[in-house]
Specification:
heterodimer; A: mainly alpha; two-stranded antiparallel sheet; 7 helices; B: 446 residues; mainly alpha; two-stranded antiparallel ribbon; 2 strands
Chain lengths: 195, 446
């Protein structure tokens, strides 16, 4: 299986448009590039400091890449249903209650995403008045990722809402095969938390 | 609307949305957005607080520790650590259950994540335990309990978050977590020996076999030394130690042990890039919630209530915090709990004159316990899913194991000198000691 095919999650296919697969792929690759890049800048930071010629701007670059990676990851996780959830009460429902609950979930996420886009954009504009040291880059360069992330979160939630209403939200319960590395990985990732 | 009502509304909405299935980060934000409509706080200010919550150098350690765990899972080291654990304790009564605990004690020192641990252990030992006839409910319970060690011992990601948010020494928390982590490990081994299934009898491994197993696992076992060595010698911050461990795995471990995996590294990076953003965005959202809690004086109100009951007695304060965190931790994940309640924790730590590292390790141990208690024992839930047993059955099997955790938490509260002995002697500054201005050594608070 090619890298591209592996990076686009096939689960919950009934809630996805194939046309958006490319966006998921690009955002996933971006996540990898951002993680690799800020790992590299931290390494350079250690090396340049050790040899006595620290590059002060490296920490600024690292923090920028880190912030972008968080918000881009949060956006793509919405499409993959990878976000941390407390429980899946909704999964146990069927018929109309299930539809109502799923619609409610998406409406909440869409509402939050609208706030992220609109008020994130306001913060972005205000960010041109503040500057980061030592480069004196406007802090708007960091805030810019928030409305972008909000846009994709909203877009993917609308995708799921429309497809769910058309195709139904219900899907067969996945059975975990203990010997299957891939399935355990998927489940582990879908429950990945900071613990 | 009064502050208490606004807080009640925020909390209720958060819990309703979260238990409906809205992702935790969005549930927190939705609750706060609605609550803030009854205050003079603007939405733009809340978005700013969310950004501030993740704009921290210390939190940079999280992606690196998660990447270490991800790469270790891919580097063909699990079998080697299993062999080592088997050679060390496979002959003891309880067999594979003992191996689960020892494996977790090794692997926790590389991954720092209970979720990673439970997935790896279930995959490595769930099948063999099933084939040897272990009760699946017991298997799920012991795997879940052993996995919680990762929340305590270095490089615990929970400790990184606690340290970053609470402005507490992360290295100090790492060191202080060793005693409770070790106690849980030993406690679980004793439980398996005396009360668990006997398992298949195995001969004791010869010294040559143990040495061979150590040799086979030597490269991955260097990781805890890199992480701790770098931090303790002051060469690296925890973040830098994490990235050095990543470099070690990429340059030495994978090319040596599983060179075929090199072509999969781009996939590992993409996946880890996604995975680390999930807790981080939740941290950002929880920071907004925690800020509102403080803004509406909720934290001060709870702190005042606790001190009115407990006075300034540090043990009573900690017992009440353990009670609070046990209840809250049963409904919310550890990371949002830490962030939301940090203003309260700070206020009570100061009120009781408690060492911040001591308070931190007590609360982290409590939250680790919450990972295997109902209704939201996430790690037990994951283990039961992986092993293929009902959560209720796994829960029944886990009940006696709770004694190990309760004993450890009580010990951690009652004996701060034992818990803080290691950080005090290795990194004295981490527990508030400072260099003696008029002679050698350090001066430490009582």
């Amino acid at each position: 299986m090619s890298l591209g095919a592996k990076l686009v999650l096939e689960s919950h296919r009934h809630l996805k448009w194939r046309a958006f697969d490319l966006i998921e792929l690009v955002l996933m690759i971006l996540c990898g590039i951002l993680l690799f890049s800020f790992s590299a800048t931290v390494v350079f930071d250690i090396v340049t400091r050790t040899i006595g010629h620290p590059w002060l701007w490296l920490q600024e670059v690292t923090q920028t890449l880190f912030i972008y990676a968080i918000f881009i990851g949060a956006a793509v996780a919405t499409r993959r249903n990878d976000h941390l959830v407390l429980t899946a009460v909704t999964d146990a429902l069927h018929g109309t209650p299930r539809i109502l609950a799923e619609v409610m979930i998406r409406l909440v996420v869409i509402s939050v995403s609208i706030c992220l886009v609109y008020f994130g954009y306001i913060n972005f504009l205000r960010g041109f008045d503040s500057f980061r040291m030592p480069s004196m880059t406007p802090i708007a360069s960091l805030y810019g990722v928030i409305p972008i992330s909000g846009f994709f979160i909203g877009l993917f939630s609308i995708e799921q809402l429309v497809n769910g209403l058309v195709n139904g939200f219900d899907h067969p319960q996945e059975v975990v095969d203990l010997e299957s590395t891939a399935e355990i990985d998927t489940l582990a990732h879908s429950n990945k938390i900071l613990t | 609307m009064s502050n208490a009502l606004i807080l009640g509304l925020m909390t209720s909405l958060f819990l309703i949305f979260a238990y409906l299935g809205v992702p935790v980060a969005f549930s927190l934000l939705a609750g706060v957005f609605v609550g803030s409509m009854f205050t003079d706080v603007t939405f733009a200010a809340l978005i700013q607080k969310m950004f501030d919550g993740v704009d921290s150098e210390a939190l940079l350690a999280i992606p690196f520790f998660l990447l270490v765990g991800e790469l270790m899972g891919s580097a063909n080291v699990v079998g080697r650590i299993t062999n080592l654990s088997l050679a060390l304790v496979g002959h003891i009564r309880g067999g594979l259950a003992q191996v689960v605990t020892v494996f977790s004690m090794f692997f926790s020192e590389m991954s720092g994540s209970t979720s990673a641990d439970v997935a790896v252990i279930s995959r490595a030992l769930g099948g063999p335990m099933k084939r040897e006839g272990y009760d699946p409910a017991f298997t799920a319970a012991i795997i879940a309990a052993a996995s919680t060690i990762a929340a305590l011992v270095p490089p615990s990601i929970t400790a990184v978050v606690y340290g970053a948010v609470g402005n507490v020494s992360i290295a100090g928390l790492f060191m202080a977590g060793v005693v409770p982590g070790f106690m849980i490990g030993i406690g679980l081994m004793l439980y398996c020996y005396f009360f668990g299934p006997a398992g298949l009898p195995r001969p004791r491994a010869a010294l040559r076999e143990v040495a061979g197993a150590f040799k086979g696992a030597s490269l991955p076992l260097m990781i805890p030394f890199i992480l701790l060595g770098g931090i303790l010698t002051g060469w690296f911050t925890p973040t830098e130690a994490g990235v050095v461990a990543v470099v070690w795995i990429l340059v030495v471990v994978i090319p040596t042990l599983n060179p075929a995996h090199m072509k999969m590294l781009p996939y590992d990076f993409c996946l880890a890039g996604l995975i680390f953003s999930l807790p981080l965005i939740t941290i950002g959202a929880a920071n907004v919630f925690g800020w509102m809690l403080a803004y509406l004086r909720g934290a001060m109100t709870i702190a005042a209530w606790i001190t009115s009951v407990a006075g300034n007695d540090p043990i009573l304060i900690m017992l009440m915090m353990v009670l609070l965190f046990t209840v809250v931790g049963d409904f919310i994940e550890p990371v949002p709990t830490i962030i939301i309640f940090m203003p309260l924790v700070n206020a009570l730590t100061a009120a009781g004159g408690i060492n911040p590292v001591h308070m931190g390790v007590v609360l982290i141990a409590t939250l680790a316990f919450g990972l295997i208690t109902p209704p939201y024992g996430l790690v037990l839930l994951m283990a039961s899913k992986f092993i293929g047993v009902k959560f209720s059955q796994a829960l029944r099997a886990a009940l006696p194991i709770y004694l190990v955790f309760l004993g450890t938490i009580t010990f951690t509260i009652m004996f701060p000198k034992v818990v803080l002995w290691l950080p005090k002697h290795v990194i004295p500054e981490s527990v508030g000691c400072f260099k003696n201005p008029s002679g050698p050594g350090y001066l430490c608070p009582p």
